[in-house]
Amino acid sequence: MFPEYDVIVVGAGHAGCEAAVAAANMGSKVMLATMNMQTIAQMSCNPAMGGVAKGQIVREIDALGGYSGIVTDHTMIQFRMLNRSKGPAMWSPRAQSDRMLFAGKWRKMLEENPNVDFWQEMITGLVVKDGVVKGVRTSIGLEIPGRSVVLTNGTFLNGIIHIGEKQFGGGRAGERAAKGITEQLVELGFESGRMKTGTPPRVDGRSLDWDAMELQPGDEIPGKFSYTDTPRLAKQRPCHIAYTSQEVHDILKTGFDRSPMFNGRIRGVGPRYCPSIEDKIDRFAERDRHQLFVEPEGWDTVEIYVNGFSSSLPEDVQYKAMRKIRGFENAKMFRPGYAIEYDYFPPTQLKISLETRLVKNLFFAGQINGTTGYEEAASQGLMAGLNAHLAINDQEPFVLKRSEAYIGVLIDDLVNKGTDEPYRMFTSRAEYRILLRQDNADLRLTPMVKDLGMSGLEERMERVAVKNEKVAEIEKFIRKTSIAPEDVNGLLAERNSSPLNQKVKIHSVLMRPNINLADLQTVMPSLSEFLDNYDTECAGLAETNLIYEGYIRKEQEMVDKMNRLEAVKINDDFDYRGIVSLSLEAREKLAVMKPRTIGQASRISGVSPSDISVLLIHMGR
Helix, strand, coil shares of the chain as percentages rounded to 5? Predict the structure, then answer.
C-alpha cells in the first residue's frame, strides 16, 4: 500500500512541519503522519511567534530555509521589536498571529510541496530491526516503511489533561492522547520522564471592557521575520494589558486544595519561566498583582487569549476569579484553562544531530526532548529533518556550533547538559550573543544550508550577496567621510557630548554614547542623501557592526579559541574507560555520550577542565 519513504515524520505540530519541509527540500520523499489533518501547525497555546531569544530562533529558521518566518509574516496581526531600550544583541522580534490563518498557511505550503505526502492516523509504534528504524505502525495495524523516522509528538505521548479534580486522557483540548510509542521506546532501552505545561482560559472579547485596560499597540513601522519578499503589515490589531489583584488571588487560593499541582496528582515538572497563575501566587506571595496580556486570536474572531492566567484550578474558581480582574467584570469564558502532563525522553540520549544513540536513523524533535515553545520545537524539527536526510544518504550531519546560532546553543544544551524541566531559550544562554543577532541570521546561516544542497535558495543567496555588499558600502562611507564641527556641535551639545574642534570621520562621532545614525542624518544632508539609496535593514546592520566592532572582535577571538577544541575530533570507539586518570564521572559520561569533538566533551555536565587536559594529552595534543 505504501512505498518506502525516505523520512517519516510523526506529528504535524511546529517541529513536525519544519522537519517535513526541511527533508523534502533536501530531496527526500517524506510522509507526514498526524492524528488530525485539521490541526496541522495548530498554535495550541498562545497565538504568537517570537519573543526574547525566540525571535532570533525564528529568523534563524528562516535563514536555514524553514517556513515558520514566512508563515508568520503572512498571518501576523501585530509586530513588536522587544528590548529596543537595550543593545541590539537583545533586540527580539515578536508577532501576534491569526491562529486560524497561521495553521491554514502552513498546511497550504506543505500541500504545495510535491515531496510531502500525508497520512491521518495515530502512529502507535516503530518498526525496528537490528537496531535500525525501518518504519512506523499505525493504530489499525498498517506498516509504513521508511528509511528514517522523526518523532515530534508534542504533548500527546500518554497525555493527561487536568482541570481541578477532573483528569482525562488527551494531547490537547478535544484530542486523544497517543499511546504505544513510549512503551516501545522504554522496551528498547530509552529512559522516559514526565513534564507538564498549561494554557489559560479563552474568553469572549465582546464581554470585556477594553477601556479599563492599558493599550499595547504594535510598532509604528512594523518589521517582519522572513528575509524573503513577504508582505509587511499595513494595519495592526492592538493587544491590551490587565492586572490581577489581591482579591483575585484570594479567590484563586480557595481552589488550591483542589489544585492538581498542589495535591500531588500532577507528577510532571512544569515550565519555570511560564508558571501557572496559582504557581505565581504561591512562589511570589509578596506580590499583590501580576500582569496579564490580553491578546486577540485573529483578525475576524472575538476569541481572546489571556496570557499570564494559565491555570489548572477548578473551572468555577477560574471563572469567579477572572471576573474580579478590572475589565473582565462581565467576561464570558469559552473554555477554562488546563494543565497537561505528557511523556518526554531526556535529550542526553541523543547525538548532537538529534539522532538517538540507541536506534539508528531515529530522530527526536520538540517537546519529546523536554523543550517548551513553538520556536524551540520548530528549530529542532528543521535540524532533525535535515539530518535525517543526510543520515540515509551517508553524509556527515549538519551541526550548528554555539557560536553560529541560537539553534546551536539550544541543541548543545539539550544533548550535553540535558534538562529536567521544560527548556526555554533565553539570550542569556548564549555566550556569543553579539554575534548571534536577529539582524544577521541570513548572513550567518543561509550559505551553510545552501552548501548542503537544499533546493530553492538561489534567490536567498542573491539577497545575502547584495546585503553583504550594501553593508560594506555603508561602513566604508561612514569610515571615510568627514563631518564638520559646525554641522554636529549643536547635536553634541544636546546630548551632553564634548564639541569637535576640527573635522573628524563620521565613524568617530557615531562611536560616542547617545549618538546614532538617525541623529547624524538630521544634521548632515550628504549622509542622509547617501543612505536614501539603502534600506533601513542594511543601514542598521552597518551601524551595529561599527558601534560594536570592539565587542564583536573580542567575541570572535573567544570563538576562535573554542573552535580549536571543536576541531579536535574524537573517534566513536575511543576507550574512555581505559584512561584511569580521568575522573570516574567523566569516564562514565563520556563513554555514554560519545562526544564528536573535544569542544563538545568540555560542555558535558560532570566533565571538568582537568578531564579535558587528560584527554588532550592522550590524543597527543
Answer: 40, 20, 40
DSSP 34-46: ES-GGGTT---S-
Angle at 617 between CA 615 and CA 621, to 5 degrees: 105
> How far is it, in rounded angstroms, from Cα 202 to Cα 99?
13
Residue 137 dihedral angles phi and psi, to the nearest 5°: -110, 140
Nearest-5° Cα angle at 527, 521 to 532? 90
Enter the DSSP assignment of 347: G
Stretch 69-80: mean pLDDT: 98
Both 14 and 77 in one domain: the answer is yes
What domain range is 323 assigned to? 202-339
Q: Which of 621, 584, 581 is nearest to 599 (CA)?
A: 621
544 and 465 in a common domain: yes
Per the structure, how many domains does the chain have? Answer: 4
The strand pair at 92-97 and 116-120 is best described as: unpaired
Q: Measure Cα distances from 333 to 206, 290, 399, 615 in Å.
A: 11, 20, 46, 60
Question: Confidence band (pLDDT; 50, 70, 90) for 174?
Answer: confident
What's the CA gap between 270 and 451, in Å, rounded?
Answer: 40
Within a domain: residue 499? Answer: yes
Beta strand segments in 130-208, E: 132-138, 143-145, 149-151, 160-163, 166-169, 193-199, 202-204
The pTM score is 0.93
Whole-number Å distance between alpha carbons of 552 and 261: 45
* 3-class DSSP state of 596: coil
Rg (CA), the chain: 26
pLDDT band at 621; cut points 50, 70, 90:
low
The C-alpha atoms of residue 53 and residue 376 are separated, in whole angstroms, by 10
CB-count exposure of residue 447 (10 Å: 0-12, 13-18, 19+): middle
My answer on whether 272 and 384 are in the same domain is: no
Distance CA 525, CA 533 (A): 13
Name the β-bridge partners of 5: 146
